[in-house]
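Now for one protein, fold included:
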Amino acid sequence: MIKENFIKLFENSFKENWDLPCYTDYGENRTYTYGQVAEQIAKVHLVFQHCSLRRGERIAVIGKNTSHWCIAYLATVTYGAIIIPILQDFKPNDVQHIVNHSEATFLFVSDNIWENLEQEAMEDLRAVFSLSDFRCLYQRDGETIQKFIGSLPQTMQQTYPKGFRKEDIVYTELSNEKIMEINYTSGTTGFSKGVMLTGNNLAGNTVFGLKTKLLQRGENDLSFLPLAHAYGCAFDFLVATAAGTHVTLLGKTPAPKILLKAFEEIKPNLIITVPLVLEKVYKNVILPLINKRQMKFALNIPLLNNQIYGQIRKRLIDALGGRFKEVIVGGAAMNPEVAAFFSKIKFPYTIGYGMTECAPLISYSWWEDFVPGSSGKILETMEVRIDSDDPYNEIGEIQVHGENVMKGYYKNDKATEEAFTEDGWLRTGDLGTIDHNNNIFIRGRSKTMILSSNGQNIFPEEIEAKLNNLPFVLESLIIERNKKLVALVYPDYTSLDDVGLNTPDNVKAIMDENLKTLNTLVGNYEQVNKIQLYPTEFEKTPKRSIKRFLYNSIADE
């Protein structure tokens, strides 16, 4: 059991960092100090008290990354209620299902999302609050919440006659064993389940971030991954807030241009990202540079290649703000070619491994200790085993046990039972090996692995990584059709337009050539029979992994 109480981590941080900037909404000129955040939480607590909200009730929050999203989350858990973060990418029917399934009584929501929801479809809701200004958007018949919010300034004055001060921050006493969050996953191989996370699960990740000094007091962090997802929530938000870091919340779709401008302005001390961001930089900026004839020639000269790699590294570091300790990549598998290049130029990046069911972290290494090709070292508070006779050489399912492992799936005993082995280890569904230094090496998902006709294991993600680096391939998906491998490809039409090649005949000729090249890069048992063009981008989870289960039944026409 983690000694530090999850709720007390934030009670202490608000007191210790009272005057420091806490949250800034990017581009909106709104910054809260730690003391002001604590005061906003106190106001929300008064509303909860007026409504006679009980500990353990469930409160949902959905919207873009903003300071008010963070305040709603912290006000909920520090009161003793259970927070239900909902990804804003979910469709209205899914949002309504989650609100109902979780039995949430309050909802904090962005105004634009609320416009598309049907309040009649969410019968348990007593009230709905706007994340723009915390006004009451809806209250059930007989409730007096709107009237109470109107008189909140006077109530605050009566409650805190000397003004709200540090010593007024006293949060509920709640054991770390209690469930404090239910996070509905959006996986690549199935539909949402409510992951029950205890204070111990959340504290385990937060304390790890504090002890390893991922973020420290007074440093800067740029939050652009969705906070409703366990990865961004744990490190851009919970660790940062517990440490006294200044978090700038992007609140926009992290398109490359927007991100690079924000990096330049914020100069973050740590960058938490998914592989897609670095893969786009590699494909759009680095590859065209190193594929120039003169550059290829220079890179073959030992004396020059180190200088060139050093210049590329500096250019990359400067583009990302120039002050970060390291870039932590997680949330999905990283393209091996991209990872190998970043290792070659000694770029300060590392790859971690986790899942929502572990809130999320399982393994991580500081970038200087990171073993290329791995997903970091197993945390000291976690145990990992490989379900094979030889875990160091023979691939098997990765199974985990320890402080970060969830309680189970909310109101889903069958799924919970299936998720654990008979002796209580969590089945991750990922396949891999470990080495003698406890580094994890992931090969793919057990649900996506294809067994070839001659008994060989085929990991589609490995073939896709090679295909995605070929000309004019934006993204791809390897599926099995009639015992043969087919590649669904969404071409890079923007790049094709730029060079005047965007005609059906040209695209077919390019993809035919890509197929030949691909089959020289993979094993005999991994040969791809054909490339089939796909008309749109593949649907993805918020962490930018393709929802593979949606495409398994696509007919080959």
